Amino acid sequence: MELGAFNSATFDSNEYANGLIAPVGKDDITTALAKLNFGIDDVATQLKNLVTEHHHALLAQAAGIGDLEGSLSSVTHGLDDVTASLEKLRQKIRVPYQSLASHVLRLHRLQQATDVLRRTARFVILARRLDAQMLDVDKSPAVDPPTQPQSPNPVALASADSSDDVRNFGVEGERERTIAKAALSVAELVALLDEATEQQAPQVQQGEDEDEQDDAHRHSFEAVRIPLRAINAVNRHIPAVEEARSKVSREMEHMVLAGLQNLNQSMLASSLQTAYNLHVLPQLVQSLVSDLSDAVDSRIRAAFDLARLSKDVSAKEPPSNSSLVYKSRLRTEPTNLTAPQWTAALWTRLETLIEELAGACIKVYTLERVLRLKKDPVTQTTFLEEAMKVLENKPTSTFWGTLARALEKHCRDAAKGSTFMAQTLSTGYPRFLRLFHEFFAKISVHTDTVYAQQQQSPETIVTLRSISHFENLYLSRVSGRLNEAAASALANVSRGAPPGAADGVAVARAYVNELDAARFDPLLVRSVARVVGSAMDNLAIRVDGYVIKDRSATTLLGPLATPQQNLNAQMASFLYHCEGRMIALEKDYPENTAAIFSQGVKNLRAIYMKAVEPLLQSIRREISAILARLHRVALGKGLDGAMGGMGGGASPYMKELCDKLAFIRAEPLAKFQVGDLLNEWVAAIVRHVIRTFVLHVSIARPLGESGKLQLTSDMTELEFALDAFMKDPAPLSAGGVKKSPKPLKLLDAVGEEYRMLRALRPLLFLENSQLASPMAQGVPPLVVLHHIFVRSPMPLPHTLHGWHEAEYVKWVEEHTPAEAWTLVEGGLSHWEKLHDSTDHDGAQEYIDLAREVLAQARASFSR
Question: Which PANTHER family match (predicted)?
Answer without folding.
Answer: CONSERVED OLIGOMERIC GOLGI COMPLEX COMPONENT 5 (PTHR13228), CONSERVED OLIGOMERIC GOLGI COMPLEX SUBUNIT 5 (PTHR13228:SF3)
